[in-house]
Write a structure and sequence with these properties.
With 209 residues, the chain is α+β, with helices and mostly antiparallel strands. 41% of the residues lie in helices and 13% in strands. Strands 1-2-3-5-4 form a five-stranded antiparallel sheet.
Length: 209
């Protein structure tokens, strides 16, 4: 399991520059910036993708992602990258080699036979993934797939609902309640159908922000 040292609660300051990351990891200089999203700076070094989290919570997420992928990899087709957590000075980054192939941004542009082949390969991978038991995941006993939704509801109660009309708030609360108490959610915890989205497979080509 990936080891993460004690993480401060304050936002990460003085993040290393792309040039400093390249030097520390012995990667080619002048990487391409793939994304400057809400969670990570994503850098493309040619054959290697590096993600630098903006927030301390992102370090925990990188560590969990590495552990989840390591647990799933032996049970899936060879399409799961190996994530490494590396220190760059006082900061933590993740790095992984790109999967072979090219990104498919619009499957509809492929010839018909290639579309069918693509669909078969993707369906086979997803079927294998969703057939795996959640018990494979490290620390699954402490993992609550609804925790983020409960936190979202709490934030809505604190900040958004006081500003909205009462009838709209009542409807939103009813929808939250139906979703959070739905029997389907409890059943979903026994398979990867709920847990899999925590790891976005699209990032394997470097698009994860």
């Amino acid at each position: 399991m990936s080891e993460v040292r004690d993480i401060p609660s304050n936002p990460i300051a003085d993040r290393p520059t792309p040039a400093e990351i390249a030097a520390a990891l012995k990667l080619p200089p002048s990487p391409k910036v793939v994304s400057t999203g809400q969670n990570n700076l994503v850098l493309d070094f040619g054959e290697t993708i590096v993600r630098l989290p903006y927030y301390p919570s992102g370090i925990r997420e990188l560590a969990r992602e590495a552990d989840v992928l390591a647990a799933l990899r032996p049970h899936l087709p060879p399409l799961v990258p190996v994530l490494e957590l590396r220190d760059v000075g006082a900061h933590v980054v993740s790095m992984h080699r790109k999967l072979a192939g090219e990104p498919i941004t619009d499957p509809g542009m492929l010839p018909c036979e290639e579309q069918r082949s693509f669909a078969r390969d993707l369906a086979a991978f997803l079927a294998a993934l969703h057939a795996l038991p959640v018990s494979l995941l490290p620390g699954v006993e402490a993992f609550d797939p609804l925790a983020e939704w409960h936190e979202l509801l709490r934030q809505c109660e604190d900040h958004a609902f006081p500003l909205l009309p009462a009838d709209l708030v009542a409807g939103l609360r009813q929808r939250f309640s139906a979703f959070l108490s739905g029997s389907g959610m409890a059943a979903g915890r026994s398979s990867m159908a709920i847990s899999a989205p925590a790891t976005s497979w699209s990032m394997m080509a470097g698009s994860q922000a």
